[in-house]
Amino acid sequence: MYKDFEEDAADAAIRVLNSNWTGRHTVPATGLYPHQWSWDSAFVAIGTRHHAPARARAELVTLFDAQWADGRVPQIVYDVGRDDDYAPGAGFWGAATSGLVQPPVHAWAAWLVHCADPAGSAREGFLARLYPRLTRWHGYLHGPRRGGVGLPVTKHPWETGTDNSPLWDAALERVPPRSRTPVRRPDLRHAGTGERPGSRDYRRYYGLAETYRDAGCADDAPIGFGMVCPLFSTLLAVSELALGRIAATLPDAGRGPGVDVGGAAHRVPGAHEAAAARVAVAMDEHLWDENLGLYVALDDTTGRTVRRATVNGLAPLLLAGVSTRTGASTTTGATADRRAGTAAGGRAGLAPGRSERLLTTLAGPGFLGGGPYLPSTSRDDPAFDPALYWRGPAWFNTSWLLLRAVQALGQDEPTARLREHFAVAAPGKFPEYVDPDTGAGRGTHQFSWTAALTLDVLL
Ligand code: 2M8
């Protein structure tokens, strides 16, 4: 019976992914998001690898075909020519892509996609093609985007992927709520007003994007917003570890003629693991909040932390089962060892005691202890709102990330709890996010990463 349910849900998830596939990439959702989004494509590839591995590879290759010369991978690759009902569009940027970025899940996704079909991947030279591009992407984040504490800085709330999280409230207050470009809100035709950021937020989002665009998307001058995010930083560290595995698979990667790997350091064995360790150590030193029992954001312009409890701050649990000396990781592991559930040996990627505290916070009243699904913002935070986007609803990508983390640590109770989130995906028509108390769908539906990650959990 349960098995039948899982098969039906998997079939339904595949149907969503098939209908959102454009021939070169997958849109996050028709209507609300009609182009290619960066971290969405990484999550989509992680799910698609199970039933269409060649398409999962194409998804990532299409995205990296739009990579900028400086290494950045754009937040949005506009599907110019297709029905464009998204704002701001390509006209705003005067380019075929946005100049912003999104969290770096890509190397991890590339590794998982490769492991799902190593023969097909080898035939296409998938890893050999992507490795130098992934390395340049990370080089951009470690280089021009490196902030005062050595961690990557996001220049716009859209870059964090968690657009209206309370983590950005104080910094956004300093951004004038106006833009020269009139703000258009086609998004409100596809999702409820109470489920999307407000118009004051949007005026700031536009104004900030204009400032960055008008500075040529250069990173050498401050633009009035610069935030270090524990989720973004964690994903960079996890992806560095995956890049280490990719490099080990391709002993000659980066040495071939004409391949620029964005810095000789990356050709040194262990360089990716060392980069991951540097990120983990910097997060431990600068982002840990002892009172809240999780990691917080840091404002790069003031040097001060932002003491708000969000799911972003639980994400470093992904590094808990990682040895920073060897880079061995269960979370980045192949499908075969996905459910192995044993943490790697050696020193943990986080400072002693931190993973236990994170598990306690995860189980506590602000998160899983306060209701059935994992909220994006702690139920104890004054901004918590069960309907409003990244200020409370439960998102499938963050549940998936935490699920991978607790599975790797062999934590049965939170594993079972986080899996429950995926049981509401198919019956709810693959919602973008859900009410963390009732599981009722919010935002848009037939949402690609919901379908893809549900597939990954079920298969
Ligand atoms: C949401 O963000 C876009 C801007 O990038 C928007 O609200 O229009 C976020 O949930 C983001 O994380 C996601 O990548 C994007 C597309 O699904 O939608």
Characterization of the model:
- The protein is built from 16 helices and ten strands.
- The chain has 459 residues and is mainly alpha-helical.
- The chain starts with a helix and ends with a helix.
- Strands 3-6-7 form a three-stranded antiparallel beta sheet. It has a three-stranded antiparallel beta sheet with strand order 8-9-10.
- The protein is globular and about 50 Å long.
- About 8% of the residues have low confidence.
- The relative contact order is 0.13.
- A hairpin with a 6-residue loop joins strand 9 and strand 10.
- The protein has a single domain, classed as Glycosyltransferase.
- It binds (2R)-3-hydroxy-2-(alpha-D-mannopyranosyloxy)propanoic acid.
- The site of (2R)-3-hydroxy-2-(alpha-D-mannopyranosyloxy)propanoic acid has 11 residues, from helix 2.
- (2R)-3-hydroxy-2-(alpha-D-mannopyranosyloxy)propanoic acid binds next to helix 2.
How far is the N terminus from the C terminus? 16 Å
Total number of domains: 1
CATH level-3 fold name? Glycosyltransferase
Rounded to the nearest angstrom, the radius of gyration is: 20 Å
What top-tier CATH class fits best?
Answer: Mainly Alpha
Helix content: 40-55%
Descriptors:
459 residues; mainly alpha; Glycosyltransferase; three-stranded antiparallel beta sheet; 41% helix; binds (2R)-3-hydroxy-2-(alpha-D-mannopyranosyloxy)propanoic acid; Glycoside_hydrolase_63; 6hp_glycosidase-like_sf
At a glance:
This protein has 459 residues and is mainly alpha-helical. It is built from 16 helices and 10 strands. It has one domain (2-458): Alpha/alpha barrel (Glycosyltransferase), CATH 1.50.10.10.
